[in-house]
Specification:
two-stranded antiparallel sheet; Trna Endonuclease, Chain: A, domain 1; alpha+beta; globular; 97 residues
Length: 97
């Protein structure tokens, strides 16, 4: 499939988007955001990754949701994400597919 015909979201992302759009507690969600979370991989090399979604709830709280399959650096990324989000007052959630 060439890039111009590529769907912008994966099937798991589309399923989550459908749920987010129906959830009355969600004020807004962003897939295209500027957040890059730093973490150290198993060799202690500093890396960064962009989580899938930034959610803002109607009560003003924010949440980051990362849809993952058990990929390389899963545990290191999750640990780094929890720590980063906690320091920013943001809830972190992993949804495995």
């Amino acid at each position: 499939m060439n890039e111009e015909n590529k769907e912008p979201y994966s099937p798991p992302q589309r399923r989550l988007i459908s749920k987010l759009n129906k959830d009355k507690t969600i004020k807004s969600w962003k897939f295209d955001h500027d957040i890059v979370i730093p973490y150290k991989d198993e060799d202690s090399i500093l890396r960064g990754y962009k989580p899938d979604f930034l959610i803002e709830k109607t009560n003003g709280t924010k949440e980051i949701i990362d849809l993952v399959s058990k990929q390389l650096d899963f545990e290191a990324r999750t640990k780094g994400s929890k720590k980063w989000c906690e320091s920013k007052g943001i809830k972190f959630k992993v949804i495995e597919y």
